[in-house]
Amino acid sequence: MHRKFTAFALAAALAGSTQAAPKGVSRDEVVFGIHTALSGPVASWGVGSVNGIRMRFDEVNQNGGVHGRRLRLVVEDNQYQVPLAVQAANKLINRDRIFAMLGALGTPMNNAVLPRMFEKNIPTLFPYTAARAMSHQLHPLKFAATSTYYDQNRVGVRFAVEELGARKICMMTQDSDFGEETVEAVRDQLQAMNMRLTAETRHKPTDTDFVGALSTLRSAGCEAIILGTILRDTILIRGTAKRIGWNVPLIGNIASYDRVVSEAQGGATEGYYAVTSFNLVYEDTAEGEAKAWLQRYRQLHGSEPPASAQLGYIYADIVVMALEQTGPELTVESFLAGLEQISEYRDIFGGPVISFGQEKHIGTNEALVSQVRNGRWNPVTGSMRY
Question: What's the Cα-to-Cα distance from 183 to each of 115, 133, 229, 252, 325, rounded to whole Å?
Fold first, then answer.
């Protein structure tokens, strides 16, 4: 059940934090923090997110900042490990004295850090996890921009049944908080459609051998498999299925929606589906601002932007808009009120419309399905809801 926060309740929840200049704010600077994976199995997500956020911040800073304040991002590597995420967050909170956390990576990492953030009255903005914990149970300090894994995996089941004609639905998930959200989504959607789960397997995030799991699901007669996987395990599962001669549809979520997956060696992921909340752009199809952004990213970093870079740019742009609406008298309370005023935001990449409000701290619950074809992501549906 969602807890309701009125403007009065928001002020009460933040009492004491607005009496003096908040942490991370001076006359000429606002400091944001991020703990993410700059190394480890999902480093492409972390590096891309930092690049995307800094691109937007740099654009703003080159034009004098927001109300005369430059925007600075302090980055810590959590290597996609909970203990390191806690250590990084403590440094950002206590030593760097950040104003807000922006784009922190990982479901278990964010879950471990959130209580400390709330205790210190530090906003947590647009984490790189679509876990329901980041958006459900409304809290004045917590904002998410994209649809949740739960929403996306329910859309994945609907897509498998309604568009692919599958009747025997199975799932493969990581045995983690992240994977559990897929489990709940698949079971709930199948129940809503008066269907039953045919079979399931679970694996550790570090597992690399999926022959046994896929053989089990193949024997069960699975006609489509919903995945609760990220990057490496997605590539290995799809590649293994092809190697054993089983071309079963595999449908993941935004955690596997990245160039690393679509461009996997030897076309390993060809045909793979992912339910996402935005469109990855390519130069030959991008137009206007999106094309200019893509070219600028390539010039700055010498590579094609991962999906996380697009999201980082979007998240930073929303922050800039909120700061502009807040005005020069920046406090935690006024900033959150500025975020809540954002309505009908449209990013430059053609993603779903994002809106917030006093009782709505998740920007959108819409999702769309994309498929790997010829080494790139191609949208196959418009926006969907379960």
Answer: 25, 15, 12, 12, 40
Q: How does pLDDT run across 346-360, given as a tens digit for each residue?
A: 999 988 899 999 999
Q: Rounded to whole angstroms, how far apart are CA atoms 307 and 260?
A: 9
149-276+369-379 has which CATH code?
3.40.50.2300
Structure tokens of 185?
A: 């989504």
Q: For residue 181, how far is the Cα from the chain centroid?
A: 14
Query: How many Å apart are CA 151 and CA 132, to the nearest integer?
Result: 9
Chain position carrying tokens 């498998």 = 160
Distances (CA, A) of 319 to 40, 64, 77, 101: 28, 16, 22, 11
Q: Give dist(CA 228, CA 255) in Å, integer.
A: 8
Intrachain domains 7-146+287-355 and 149-276+369-379 with the same fold: yes
pLDDT digits (tens, 9 = 90+) for 220-275: 999 999 999 999 999 999 999 999 999 999 999 999 999 999 999 999 999 999 99
Cβ neighbours of 291 (radius 10 Å): 16
Phi and psi angles of residue 59, each rounded to the nearest 5 degrees, phi first = -60, -45
* CATH 3.40.50.2300, domain 7-146+287-355, yes or no: yes
